[in-house]
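Folding follows sequence. Below is one example:
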Amino acid sequence: MTNEANPYESPKSDLVSPAPGVASRRELVPVWIKIFGWIFIAVSALTVPLMLWSVVAGSDVRLDLFGFGYTGPALHPYAFAMASLYLFMGITAYGLIFRKDWGVTGCLANGYIGLAICIISMIMSGGTNIRIEPIIQLFYLRRLHKIRPDWKNASP
């Protein structure tokens, strides 16, 4: 295992380097998913301070997610449910962007929940509120299913 080009370079170890043809997790995630992931992380990080500010200031909080909206007190159960969804989506985006073992599985759950929320909001609007998010969610889920088998074998 000596290197003929440079005899003074240490040999490459098969134990440290990934198997040939296996990409790193960073390379598996496309740029458009990374952009959406960072947006969800930012919104998630701002959710808790927004909710706390609303409670302290006594003002209403306004939350919108996949066709559902809420304006009212931050301590209302509906506001808590929507804020929890924001946090869940931010945590799963973190898992994917920072290449955690559970990242793809969490984002698949995130994708299916988001798709269900979009479809329910369109049905509840009586067909008057047609949204583009389900199309994006389908592309997102398709891509995650494609990278899932490689995610387990890829190097972080």
